[in-house]
Amino acid sequence: PLYTLSRYVTSSLSSTRFFASAAAIPTSVAQLAYLFHCKPVNFTMLRILAGVLCLLLVHAAEEEVTEARLLVQKRILNKFLVEGKDIIVDYNIYNVGGSAALDIKLSDNSFNPAYFEVTSGLLSFKLNRLAPGSNVTHTVVIRPLTFGYFNFTSADVSYRTSEDSQELQFAHTAEPGQGGIMPVRDFDRKFSPHVTDWLAFAIMTLPSLGIPFVLWFNSKSKYENIVKQFKKH
């Protein structure tokens, strides 16, 4: 490719169309193009240089993965978010690096105490060490005190990437996004078994069904008595 490029450059410089612009090019560039044009490129040397470059890139990549790298996920596990009912929040921490992550601290300040109550677990926790290739899960149960739309934002994470490093690495979890908390009366109207409603319906329909049944039963009893008397005679 370099040999073809040099031929194109030198042919352009030698043509009358680009002669004026070639005069303005520095002598070193013109000499380099002339050198490439006159002498074919040593492809063996290029292969050696490419191999050395690949080795350097691989070595740099290996050095990068020797440090700890954390991927942190925050999820809302409930299918429906309902006022006054528990919501399960799940935090997953994955170490995809080559070293153990140290002094891990996760803090979630997205749940305002005026709107949410923590019923189980902690919204801030610490972990001394997380080995490479391993993961840990932390679960918190909260209870919304009111209904409406809320933006579930990310939690903050800090950790050290190796034993030798004293500098903290900061990260954020994934954001679950906006979610609507349903009023409990709407949820009960859609998904509850409606036992009270069915009981009230039964009481209301009992007279309309019971009175005809009593009349029919009395008539049936009288008819059967009359039939029995005729059979005796």
From TrEMBL:
GO cellular component, one term: endoplasmic reticulum
Keyword list, A-Z: Membrane, Transmembrane, Transmembrane helix
UniProt organism field: Rhipicephalus appendiculatus (Brown ear tick)
Protein name, entry field: Translocon-associated protein subunit beta
Keyword Transmembrane: yes
Keyword Membrane: yes
Transmembrane segments: 198-218
Pfam family, one: TRAP_beta
